[in-house]
Amino acid sequence: MIISFDLDDTLIPSSNSFECEQSNILGKLLGLEPLRKGTKELFKLLKKDGHEIWIYTTSYRSKNKIRLIFGIHGLFPQRIINQTINAKVLKRYNCYSSKNPSLFGIDLHIDDAKGVKMESEKDNSNVLIILPENNNWVIEIINSIAN
Length: 147
Ligand SMILES: [Mg+2]
Known about the structure:
Elements: E1 2-5, H1 25-30, H2 39-48, E2 52-56, H3 63-71, E3 79-81, H4 83-92, E4 108-111, H5 114-123, E5 127-129, H6 137-146
Parallel strand pairs: 1-2, 1-4, 2-3, 4-5
The protein binds magnesium ion.
């Protein structure tokens, strides 16, 4: 399956919304944003099961910046969709949703925004909401994929 992840408040904290993975020296030197604790474990489990991991964000962070944020943790998402790409594709299809995972061929999208879930019902996308305060988020994602 192709599984995509939102960034802000899903994998990257906007304030002190959740505990984060330990940053390394490179991350500190470059002032990179931290990743939610459990991201490394989750990505490894998904990869082991043969899933493709994508990033799907409505932020304008560059692809290289996003690759770096994950790369310093040894994580390499296969595809990055940022808002520059998202806006272009949605416009081409006359889609007025903020995100439309099925349009990109994504099987399951993980996001913290309930609005994305509401949109997904009309767009026929599969969205799982994971809130920042959810400490069992890794297990919930794994279970949701297994079902
Ligand atoms: Mg978000």
